[in-house]
Amino acid sequence: MHGVSVESLCALNNLSKDSIIHPGDKLFIRKPSMQSAKTHVSRKPNQSTHQATPNSKQLDLAITAQRYIGVRYRYASSLPSRGFDCSGFVYYLLQRYGVTVPRTASAMFKIGKPVKRSELRAGDLVFFKTTSRKRITHVGIYIGDGKFVHASSAKGRVTVSSLVTGYYANRYVGARRIFE
């Protein structure tokens, strides 16, 4: 119907040929005119972050995460058909790569390799304290050029925000690398 091969559909949605899809699951189909606009991972450094070269899984994670921009925010959800909260978004994506992680941002902060802000790579998980609580309350995926993608309750959807300026710059706590 859309002229998309099974191989292309699997690659775009990080599915294997044995994957099971269910009614209501969202599948992404590439539109030639929108492909470059939706998928952008900067490889050039800026003044506040040194861009190390990500490995292929990390880079793919950063690219894949951006395909969900616009999916609605929904507290306690980790399915694109229903919407995502911040940790549900990261949890869902990492599951697609065969990586099992805890379901909360604070628990996710305890896994992986700690990464200095100056050594962030596309695909690293970035963490924040967005309330007066003493624990981590928010997580996203770094995409390069001082930006990260995350499910934002304030915006009501998956969006891209700056690590360098604005709300999240002062609430940044640290980062973890899942793929080496």
Mind telling me which CATH architecture of the largest domain this is?
Alpha-Beta Complex
How would you sum up the major sheet?
A: 6 strands, antiparallel
Q: Identify the CATH homologous superfamily of the largest domain.
A: endopeptidase domain like (from Nostoc punctiforme)
User: How are the strands ordered across the major sheet?
Assistant: 3-8-4-5-6-7
| Low confidence ranges | 31-51
Q: How many domain modules? A: 2
Tally of strands: 8
CATH fold-type name of the largest domain: endopeptidase fold (from Nostoc punctiforme)
Q: Indicate the mean pLDDT.
A: 84
Helix content, binned percent: 10-25%
**What is the CATH C-level name of the largest domain?**
Alpha Beta
**Global Rg:** 16 Å
Beta-strand content:
15-25%
Form type: globular
Specify the structural class: alpha+beta
Count of helical stretches: 5
- Listing every helix as H and every strand as E from the N terminus to the C terminus, the arrangement reads HHHEEHHEEEEEE
Distance between the termini: 39 Å
Structural features, described:
The structure is a single chain. The chain is of the alpha+beta class and 180 residues long. The protein has two domains: 1-30, no CATH class; 39-177, Alpha-Beta Complex (endopeptidase fold (from Nostoc punctiforme)). The chain contains five helices and eight strands; from the N terminus they run H-H-H-E-E-H-H-E-E-E-E-E-E. It has a six-stranded antiparallel sheet with strand order 3-8-4-5-6-7. A two-stranded antiparallel ribbon has the order 1-2. It is globular, with a radius of gyration of 16 Å. It starts with 5 loop residues before the first helix and ends with a strand. Mean pLDDT is 84; it is low at 31-51.
